[in-house]
Design goal:
Helices cover 53% and strands 16% of the residues. The protein has 700 residues and is α+β, with helices and mostly antiparallel strands. Strands 1, 2, 3, 4, 5, 6, 7, 8 and 9 form a nine-stranded mixed beta sheet that branches. The model has no long low-confidence stretch (mean pLDDT 86).
Length: 700
């Protein structure tokens, strides 16, 4: 006999509260409702909840109380999210911006060094149009031109900034990473590019004392690791795994760990926090006493140790989640009470979202929770499929079961965000999970014993050798044939379908009824049909796209899962990839040929001769100098693409070529484009400014 559903529900109160809280937060992203309306609905739900709770209501009407609670929590989630948005604050600096603002701001994140110092600052005050300083608030992403090669910035420094502050722009090319959205959910809505003469230090070390102290220790530990890990690759992996410092991970290392499914080990998360918990719990186990004071001190030591580690690793969302979850677990165990793991997870998520509702949009936050849920539910069931007799094989199989369970749970999100599937993830997990345990232990021991040179040297050598060996194995797995499936683009509907199928399969494993198998198979059939229709659409796709690439000209001519990319001479492969690769991958492109404007090419669909292009029945003229315009006969074209700021009169273009649309690509100057746009408006000719509106796409 299975227990009544109400028995399960009483064990997971925070799960029942978390779901409506998430609904409220997500609604605030999609729907802009008057705040007073939401407050009124919240008061109405709370009043109804109070009335029902104060009276004896028949059991069959118990759902009424639950409905009022759900409505109230949804309203709370909506209001938490609205309040968290800095743009809704009355003193946000964007309300006072003009061309002559001077800002006083405090550095709130460690700067990243490149051609410019990239750092996040918190605005404290700004000058208005009269020059008077007034208190202000809000985050700003600042790109600072270094005053000299020795320029250093640190958390807590106060700066005076002058410069052009602009809203973070949306993505300018189709399927490009939405950096605006990414920053918005970190409460950053504006950015500024500051010249070296327009900023200066005023004060240092003005940040939160605890965070400042933690960062000081963190950077001291990073410098110590540099001595033990002298090579770039080993240092970047060791610093990321032990201290969460990822600024120096090279692209080849990032690709290797990502393409083998081991990237999670470089992002300090639940695995690392769990290991810290186990280390501390193991050493505290040597204290054999039933003293009441120690019973109180034990959970305090455990929780303190977990959060000290979280501070040292930068307080990323995954670390905060794991630290919060383990804190609740420690408290529950110290009270000698049974704790439902799903309720513990939901409780940690509820409190994190209470303080920062935008975490719900964080990819690491989503993957972290989904992975833990998958491990908790599926790992025991996968493990029971085979019970090895050998202890070693049994341990390896247990680790493999953990990896498979986590991969099952995170697969839909991984495909949605990263568009790839690492085939040998299970093999990489067998390496990195045990290795991470020893690397973390050796890293901590080498840092703790740094005042004893010989001991620290010994642990450092072991640490270096282990990281080198792990890197060797990861790169070897990356080079295995068919190790990665790339270019898988799925939308939100397919993600929802995959998770519904996974949920119905989980229900079958729990309830053992055939209807859940049928539901799973039905959902999988829907997913396959949806994916098949997507492939058919890609096969029939005919499209011209002119991309946005700063001071460059790049265009794609897509047909039957093939494309010919045409660019200006001198445009680098890296620049073409940044602008076009995501869109090509989303379009299912399997063959990509390259060419240049003013070149010659002919195939069954595309004809290119100098400045004239014909793709199927669409004719395009490329104008990059005035000679073509003055020397040409009257030729009718569908589109005119203007490049490299030539001196042209739009009226003459219309009379000579009679185009439907004129396209100004990103190689043109803003000054020239503004002149042409005025001329187009005067003669009622349609135009598309790629610098302003982003890539131009025409499907037919």
């Amino acid at each position: 006999m299975l227990p009544e559903p109400s028995v399960y529900l009483r064990e997971i109160p925070f799960v029942r509260l978390l779901l409506p809280l998430v609904v409220g937060i997500v609604l605030s992203f999609w729907i802009d409702l008057p705040v007073y309306l939401v407050i009124g609905l919240g008061i109405l739900c709370f009043s109804g909840m109070s009335v029902v709770a104060s009276r004896k209501v028949d059991y069959k009407w118990r759902w009424v109380y639950g409905a009022f609670v759900v409505g109230w929590v949804i309203c709370l989630g909506y209001l938490f999210s609205v309040k968290h948005n800095d743009l809704n604050q009355r003193k946000h600096f964007s309300r006072f911006l003009d061309d002559k603002n001077t800002l006083i701001a405090k550095v709130t994140a460690s700067p990243k060094i490149g051609k410019r110092l990239k750092t996040q600052v918190r605005v404290l005050a700004l000058s208005d149009s009269t020059g008077q300083m007034k208190t202000a608030s809000g985050n700003l992403l600042a790109y600072l031109e270094p005053a000299n090669i020795d320029t250093e910035l640190a958390y807590g420094d106060v700066l005076i900034l002058k410069g052009w502050i602009q809203a973070v722009p949306p993505p300018m090319n189709p399927h490009q990473f939405d950096y605006q959205r990414y920053l918005r959910y970190q409460n950053i809505h504006y950015q500024a590019f500051i010249k070296k003469e327009d900023w200066q230090h005023t004060q240092t070390n003005q940040g939160n004392f605890v965070l400042k102290f933690a960062q000081k220790i963190r950077f001291a530990c990073i410098n110590q690791l540099r001595e033990y890990l002298p090579t770039e690759r080993e240092f970047s992996v060791g610093a990321a795994l032990i201290l969460g410092y990822k600024d120096e991970i090279s692209q080849d290392v990032r690709d290797a760990y990502s393409q083998t499914g081991a990237m999670h080990v470089l992002a300090v998360s639940g695995l690392h926090v769990g290991l810290i918990y186990l280390f501390l719990n193991y050493f505290l186990g040597f204290v054999k006493t039933r003293n009441r004071i120690f019973r109180i001190a034990r959970p305090v030591i455990l929780i303190t140790g977990i959060w000290v580690f979280a501070l040292l690793t930068g307080m990323s969302p995954s670390v905060m989640r794991a630290a919060t979850m383990f804190s609740f677990l420690v408290v529950g165990l110290s009270m000698s009470r049974y704790t439902n793991v799903y309720n513990t997870l939901a409780c940690s998520a509820f409190f994190l979202l209470y303080f920062n509702p935008y975490l719900i949009a964080n990819v690491g936050f989503q993957l972290s929770y989904v992975a833990v849920l998958g491990i908790v539910y599926f790992q025991p069931r996968i493990y029971r499929l085979w019970i090895p007799r050998s202890a070693l094989v049994d341990n390896l199989w247990a680790l493999t079961a953990v990896s498979i369970a986590a991969q099952m749970a995170t697969l839909p999100l991984s495909l949605y965000y990263f568009h790839q599937f690492p085939v040998f993830f299970w093999l990489a997990s067998l390496i990195v999970i045990p290795a991470a345990t020893f690397i973390l232990a050796l890293g901590i021991m080498s840092l703790i014993s740094s005042w004893i040179p010989f001991v620290a040297w010994f642990f450092g050598k072991l640490l270096f050798g282990l990281i080198w060996f792990v890197n060797f194995l990861i790169f070897s797995i990356q080079n295995l044939p068919f190790s990665l499936i790339e270019g898988v683009w799925i939308g939100g509907l397919l993600v929802a379908g995959l998770y519904l199928a996974l949920l119905s399969f989980a229900c079958f494993l729990k309830i053992k009824k055939a209807k859940w198998v049928l539901a799973t198979l039905g959902l999988l059939l829907f997913i396959l049909m949806k994916r098949a229709s997507q492939i058919i659409e890609q096969q029939a796709q005919r499209e011209i796209t002119v991309y946005h690439s700063y001071k460059n000209s790049i265009a794609d001519f897509i047909s039957n899962k093939k494309t010919r990319t045409i660019s200006g001479i001198g445009v680098e492969t890296r620049q073409i990839g940044f602008a076009a690769s995501n869109h090509q991958s989303a379009s299912g492109i399997r063959t990509n040929d390259k060419g240049y404007f003013r070149g010659n090419h002919e195939d069954e669909n595309l004809f290119l001769l100098q400045n004239f292009i014909q793709f199927y029945d669409k004719k395009i003229l490329v104008l990059d100098n005035e000679n073509l315009l003055t020397d040409s006969l009257s030729i009718r074209t569908d589109y005119v693409l203007i490049q490299n700021s030539p001196y042209l009169q739009i009226t003459k273009i219309k009379d000579t070529f009679q185009p439907k649309v004129i396209i100004f690509d990103a190689s043109n100057s803003h000054k020239a484009i503004n002149i042409w746009k005025r001329q187009c408006t005067e003669i009622d000719l349609a135009y598309h400014d790629i610098n302003e509106k982003g890539a131009w796409t025409m499907q037919f």
